[in-house]
Amino acid sequence: MQDKTQGYDFRYYLLPNLCPNNAMTEQPKSPQSTSAEHEDDLFLQEMQGVKPLQTKEKVDLRKGDINKASANARRVAATTEAEDKDPNHLRASEVERVGPHDVLGFKRPGIQDGVYRKLRLGKYEIEARLDLHRRTVEDARREVFRFVHDCMAHDIRCILILPGKGDRNIKDPAVLKSYLVHWLEEMMEVQAFHTAQQHHGGSGAFYVLLRKSDRKKQAAREQFSKGRL
Fold this sequence. Notes:
single chain, alpha+beta, Ribosomal Protein S8, Chain: A, domain 1, 39% helix, elongated
């Protein structure tokens, strides 16, 4: 068989560490190469202890996504604003004072004189009462608002509220009584009120007549219709 390696010198095809001595010699480094390596060493020394910045993943939003996110943000803001807004509209600022022993009354237009007279004389059954003695103005404001609305929800029409005369406070008498008079006039649920009879608290208490709830109005209409049949 013919030798295929005849005429080829294999020294130049071997790895350097397998080559015979002096087969491949290391070339001397140029000045430019030495300078570049020195700069690399300096750079590595300067960068020791430096941590790479943490980058956050980016999310690509389409136009529709941006509009939806904006709408959601507006909806959340509107809900928060509605929750933060106090539904209690009763006045918290200063009001004109009344006397501890003043007899006071009020009725809205349309209330019959006979209805108001019965209220003034305490002829209506008292279905619920609220005692405001020793309350602060802010506490009384919250309780009156809640009490009236609770009574409306339970179809209660005639109530008694006792703010007290306030005659023991010489410097600023009848504080709660003065505020209550203004609050009752501000509430459209209140049709009329009057100072109570002596056995119900006298000048330190008020009879209050609330308007009919929608349920009671409907029941009255149905009862009236049945009576005509």
